[in-house]
Amino acid sequence: MSHVVIKKELCKGCSFCIKACPKSVLSLSSDINNRGFNYAEYAGEGCTGCGFCFYSCPELDAIEVYS
Question: Choosing a second label site near 1 at 20 to 30 A (CA), which of 26, 30, 49, 66?
């Protein structure tokens, strides 16, 4: 089953991945990471493994996609 892992401590909350996701399975958390940003989080289901979120993210290693 495809899924996304977002490393919340590396995320700056730019929302590029959220906008890029064709299935709308990513959103900004209401929680704040140690760097002071609301981070992106995966809904837990619905990912197709397309990788659009990965390729749109400017933060190296912040997103991993498994398909």
Answer: 30
Q: What is the pLDDT of residues 58-67, one digit of tens each?
A: 999 999 999 9
How many other CB atoms are there within 10 angstroms of residue 59's CB atom? 14
- Which parts of the chain sit beneath pLDDT 50? none
CB-based contacts of 20, cutoff 8 Å, min separation 6: 52, 53, 55, 56
CA distances, 13 to each of 1, 2, 28, 58, 65 (Å): 26, 22, 7, 11, 18
Instruction: Please list, residue by residue across 30-43, b when 16 or more beta carbons sit within 10 angstroms of its beta carbon and e when fewer do.
Output: eeebeeebbbbbbe
pLDDT at 19: 98
